[in-house]
């Protein structure tokens, strides 16, 4: 039996039984296999995207997907919602969209002579914000505020959004006309930004055959929302050693002060680094990744596995970096290679 010692809030020493924790993780994560099998009825490939969706869901975060049309982004979150037996809403973002179209509004009832609440599509468990960069800043802010606060105020009443609550926003990287880029301060509210690519040859052959045959996916609810909420509590129990905490902070601080970590060549390439949200997101995402791998403790490989998705939208690059064709991916790769691994 392996015991780790960790100081608690009262400065006592609390022993953590890793063997018992591993057994609990094995039990509480058993639903993942059933869930993946059910979603696999409609989704071919895209394992990386589905894994990142699950990380965001288990971490109480939100996810921004960037990819060309037709990569099953809508189908993925809709299938996830159906398999978990929760409510799903799809919002198509357009330049003429208003905040009330998302949040809802007060409607006057002439027969009763009073105003009644008409809730918007945000009052669901899974929200697909399709092409979020097509809506103006006012609409983007309304959605992002609901994501952060997890409640919506209509009239004099504040309504709490039902858990589990996950927003998956998409943006098209190849079409820039008529779009409004997400402000840096707001895009930071997404836990992960995931870039997805085309399926493999054989995967696309299977996709083509399924669609030509017109075979129904037939996804059925296999787990309840309560299972996800219980799993979220278990994810927070995943053990993270102080050395792993320091490793995460070193990575984040290296995006802010690269010279301090002897990565002088990045000084003129980074305009701003990861915020404290980046540290929190990386810690939670690492725990969720360990949970998905059926492990009760976080290892450095877990941190490295989620680092690109946590950081790529949180690092600003300078004009010099753009002139040298250096992007966030290369900067993160350099940092991960230079920061000492525990």
What labels would you give this structure?
single chain, 342 residues, alpha/beta, Rossmann fold, Helicase, Ruva Protein, domain 3, 5-stranded parallel β-sheet, two-stranded antiparallel ribbon, 14 helices, 13 strands, disordered N terminus
Topology of helices and strands:
Layout: E1 3-7, E2 13-17, H1 18-28, H2 31-39, H3 47-58, E3 63-66, H4 73-84, E4 88-92, H5 99-103, E5 104-109, E6 114-119, E7 126-130, H6 137-149, E8 151-154, E9 157-160, E10 166-171, H7 184-187, E11 192-195, H8 201-213, H9 225-237, H10 242-256, E12 270-272, H11 276-292, H12 300-311, E13 316-317, H13 319-323, H14 328-338
Parallel strand pairs: 3-10, 3-11, 4-7, 7-10
Antiparallel strand pairs: 1-2, 5-6, 8-9, 12-13
Helix pairs in contact: 1-9, 3-11, 9-11, 10-11, 11-12, 12-14
